[in-house]
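Morning!

This is the sequence you dropped in the shared folder:
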Amino acid sequence: MPRVDFSNVGDVTDFSPIPDGEYLVKLVDIETDSTRSGDEMWKLRLQVDGGEHDGRLLFDNLVFSAKAMSRVKLICASFGVDVSGAVDVQPELLLDKRAMVSTYQEEFTDERTGQQKVANRVPYSGYCPVPHEGTPPPF
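The structure's back. Tokens below.
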């Protein structure tokens, strides 16, 4: 068992969802997994980069199924990948890259506890490249 000096550990902070809106994010982690139907899936951890909610996390999934390829293309392009031809999509292509993400709050029932909760969701088309200075994002 690890020994922890809790006198140097902060208290739990607020994990409530961030407000609906558009945020500059950095892709800080990708966990590989698969869906129930066997398609490859990446669990994305997006960190808000700047503003009032700097450092807060958003979570999304990237599923490599035939039906979701347009979203894979959108997300890859939003993080700066050249999607004009064949690409060996690897986490390294996206990690530590930035994009704009739209998010909204959604209520759901926690399957373990049966409690109603609220979490952030990223819509299917909720990604776009970081705009150049002076250009608003296309949300």
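Headline: Residues 79 and 99 are 5 Å apart (CA to CA).

More detail when I'm at my desk.
O.
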